[in-house]
Prior knowledge:
It comes from Novosphingobium fuchskuhlense. The chain has helices at residues 20-29, 39-49, 100-113, 150-156, 159-169, 181-198, 205-215, 254-257, 259-273, 289-296, 327-334, 338-349, and strands at 10-14, 53-60, 63-75, 79-84, 94-95, 118-122, 132-145, 174-178, 219-226, 229-239, 242-250, 278-285, 302-310. The protein is an alpha+beta fold. The protein has a domain at 147-276 and 318-353: Aminopeptidase (3-Layer(aba) Sandwich). α2 (39-49) packs antiparallel against α7 and α5 crosses α9.
Amino acid sequence: MNAPFRPALIRVRLADPGDRGAVARFVGEADGTTPFHRPEWLEAVTRAARHPAHVLLAEREGTIAALLPLHAVHSPLFGRALVSTGFAVGGGIVGDAAAAGELFAAATELARRLTCPTLEVRGGPMPEDPAWHIKRDSHAGFVAPLAADDEAQLTWIPRKQRAEVRKGLANTLDVRVGRDRQDRDWHYGVYAESVRNLGTPVFPRALFEAVMDAFGEDADILTVLQDGRAVASVLSLYHRGAVMPYWGGGVHAARALRANDVMYYALMCYARSRGCDRFDFGRSKTDTGAYHFKRNWGFEPQPLSYAVWSADGAAPRDVNPLSPRYKAKIALWQKLPLGIANRLGPIIAQGLA
């Protein structure tokens, strides 16, 4: 009689620098990976914001079966947390779901060892342990296939939103895609003004620079200009056939010009020209303006799951800009002169990973 089959045991350990190549290959091949699982992202966040990166590897017979990337975030304003991953809208465990239990256990032990009272996992399989709080309907992701050509892409957009794009295309606007100093200057200026107007502090410029440098050709900036002035701009990440417009915005004049509408349509067409077949519009909090904006473009929301663990029942950190506790602060921030907001914002935003 044949002996019963027993799967090889899972061993979980922290990755060391020598594992970088194996981690990169795994992320390049495993299902469900995002730009935020890549070593480039982990290293860029550590370099720019000094949040140490930790990668938990679940191995079977010496081969990676699953992994969980993490950043240890520390902020005098928002406390300490272990997050998967810093400044990202995704992360979580990828690979063999059978290893999830061991990885979650190892992550909580790592959080204790690093004195992080909160552990946040964004996406992937969720823990079954009742000590974790699971949110399944707070955020949604938006992904859709790209059309066959520019005209088909425009036709794909629902009628009302398509009309807005056509109005923008009728304006005297230029579109530029690049990675050099001018592109980075335009983008940061537009993005900083955009988030100030929304009432949130801008991330440190070093973060944008580090991501651009680390991703190389897998990151670029598309800017919409009117008479040589940047009015809308987006920094996009490319990962395994998908383009993700990650950090984008527009100045006050962008709305009347429909510059943001032109920007996203132009990015769809450009991404297809460089071989992409999917447009990942990222995540939005359910029932917000951004959520409905993406639905208006024809994207169907897909619920995202997030898990939070707190040590010894400690209250999890609150970094949600829609939290009622920040309402007055947001109103005040919107009134700040842009120069002051740009000096103070990065100091605050460094802890919003």
